[in-house]
Each structure stands twice: as structure tokens, then as C-alpha cells.
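DM from R.C. (forwarded with permission)

"hey, sorry to bug you on a friday — could you get me a structure for this? deadline for the figure draft is monday and I only need the backbone to look sensible"
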Amino acid sequence: MILTKAKILEFIEQELEEIERDYKKEAERLRQTDPKAREKHAARNRDRRKAEKEGRVKKGDGKDVHHPNGYSKGSKTVVEPAEKNRGRKEKSRKKGYNKK
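My reply, with the result:
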């Protein structure tokens, strides 16, 4: 059997299709192992439930509960569209950002 570049690439593609990562499962596993991450996740869920109880958001409405000053206990939250909240660049990734 003669192996050509095309056959090798086809074989690799087939192998990659069979191995699909479950990103939700990986994230959940990581969240459960780190105590600080678990605490932050629980706090974010708590803030979301509080906003739902106040009637500011509903399940499936496409809104996120945003923490403008980062998460801290008792921080003020703002409700905004998910695409705006998730589309915002992090400061650390902006060009010319120097952490002091």
C-alpha cells in the first residue's frame, strides 16, 4: 500500500472526528476541583438567582448579570445582553496593557 499525503491527511481527519472533546464536562470537572473556583461559581449563581427573584432577568432571556468592578462580596451587579457581556475584551488582552 502506497501512502500518499492525501491518504494520510484523510486518516488524521477521521481520527480527529472520532475524538471530540466535551468542553462542558471539562469545565465542570475543573470547577469542582479548585475550592476558590467553586466558591466564585456559587457566588455568581447566587447573584443570578437574586436578580431573577427581583425580576431583572428571566431564564432564557439572553441577559447576563455583569459585575462591573469584578466579583467581590456585595458588589453591585448590572443586567446586560449576553452578547455585550461576553464580547467585551479583557484588559489583560488589550494592546499596551501593563499590569502594575
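R.C.: lifesaver. The two ends are 60 Å apart (CA to CA).
me: no worries. The mean pLDDT is 81.
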